[in-house]
Amino acid sequence: MEIISCPTCGRCEIDLLPLVRKIEQRVKGIATPLTVAIMGCVVNGPGEAREADVGIAGGRSKGALFRKGQVVRKIREKDFAVALFEEIERTLGEISR
Ligand code: SF4
């Protein structure tokens, strides 16, 4: 699994690094080739999030969850990690079918 995270900049609107670490921990050991993008803003984040299998583009206190190029739904910042991981699991489940 490949996790792409933005390098963060002045536009970053979420607490990105703890989220990246949390997801890295949870997907450790999963060998399925899946790309997960974790991006910090709604300016440049959606482009990269759309390219990934699962992605998130953070915004002020909420963000957009992407899957295979489509917005799945909007999520609150406190739910980012859970929603992202659920979407990763869902995608993994479909791949292994
Ligand atoms: S995605 Fe947004 S926050 Fe992240 S580096 Fe790019 S412009 Fe900055």
What would you note in describing this structure?
The protein is α/β, with parallel strands linked by helices and 97 residues long. The chain has a single domain (2-95), classed as Sulfite Reductase Hemoprotein, domain 1 (2-Layer Sandwich), CATH 3.30.413. Helix content is 36%, strand content 28%. The chain is built from 3 helices and 5 strands. It has helices at residues 16-27, 45-51, 80-95, and strands at 2-5, 35-39, 54-58, 62-67, 70-76. Strands 1-2-3-4-5 form a 5-stranded mixed β-sheet, with helices on both faces. Helix 1 links the parallel strand 1 (2-5) and strand 2 (35-39). Helix 1 runs parallel beside helix 3. It is globular, with a radius of gyration of 12 Å. The mean pLDDT is 95. Iron/sulfur cluster is lined by residues 6-9, 11-12, 39-41, 43-45.
Supply the key terms:
globular, binds iron/sulfur cluster, 28% strand, 5-stranded mixed beta sheet, 3 helices, 36% helix, 97 residues, Sulfite Reductase Hemoprotein, domain 1, alpha/beta
